[in-house]
Structure formats: structure tokens, C-alpha cells
């Protein structure tokens, strides 16, 4: 048996149809609105930990290296990018627009394990990679306690 869904105009038909449409479409609205990764100000970030460092990979295609700002204020690492909309010429006509680059800003609180003075960043093939090296663990020297 095949399920066929007909697209009716809103408010067409009976009250039962309106209620059915409301409850079948409502979960999709929440899913798209709250969990959609394309929402404004959101870029996906992968965080990896190796033996000597942490790596942040920010997926941000369509940007130039100069569009990014990476700031460190105390323990707060902020990654942002701003792109201005392209200005269309008067003789151009936009027939269809399916993508756009959006500005974003993400902040991360760094742990005491990170050496903030040696952070490196690179932007290759639409992925901004930040290398956050770990500090060498400082061990307190062993001291001898004198017995009185």
C-alpha cells in the first residue's frame, strides 16, 4: 500500500483536515527551526584531542582568510567571520538564489591545560583549523620533610 499525501490549500476543507494538518506539520516546524544547522550564527565545529593538542575545525566554506577574526580574551576564545552581501549591478537580474554566506560568532572557554601563547590557525578548503597545544604538566619537585 502506498501512502499518498495531497497538498491542500491552508484552511481548505473541514475542521478535521485543519487539525490533522496542524499536528502532522508541527513536528517538522520545530525540527527545522531549532535543530537546523543552517540557522543564523551557527557553524559546525569539530573538536579533536590528541596527545599534545586540541584541534578545532570550523566548517565555513565561502569565506576568505581575511574575513575571520580569532580573539583570545582571558580564557575565552572567540571565532567570528563577517561577510558583506554582494552588491548587484543595475543591469543584473537575480533569477534564483540558493546560497548565501552568513556572518557568525562562536565562543569557547579554554581549559588551563591549553597553552594560549602558541595557538595556530589555518584556513584550507573551507575549513578553519585551530591548533591549541597543551601545556606541559608542571610537577612540583619532591621535597624532603625533616622529622623533628
Structural commentary:
By secondary structure, this protein is an alpha+beta fold. The protein has a domain at 45-86 and 101-133: Immunoglobulin-like (Sandwich). Helix content is 14%, strand content 28%. The protein contains one helix and seven strands. The strands form two sheets. The protein has a four-stranded antiparallel sheet with strand order 1-2-7-6, with no helix packed on it. Strand 6 (120-124) and strand 7 (127-133) form a beta hairpin. The longest helix has 21 residues, at 15-35. The chain is elongated. The model is unreliable at 31-38 (pLDDT under 50).
How do the strands and helices of this protein lay out in sequence?
Elements: H1 15-35, E1 45-49, E2 53-59, E3 68-73, E4 76-81, E5 104-109, E6 120-124, E7 127-133
Antiparallel strand pairs: 1-2, 2-7, 3-4, 4-5, 6-7
- Main sheet makeup: 4 strands, antiparallel
Coarse morphology: elongated
Radius of gyration: 26 Å
Distance from N terminus to C terminus (CA atoms, Å) equals 91 Å
Q: Which CATH class of the domain at 45-86 and 101-133 applies here?
A: Mainly Beta
Total DSSP helices: 1
Which features characterize this protein?
14% helix; Immunoglobulin-like; 28% strand; 1 helix; elongated; four-stranded antiparallel beta sheet; 148 residues; single chain; alpha+beta
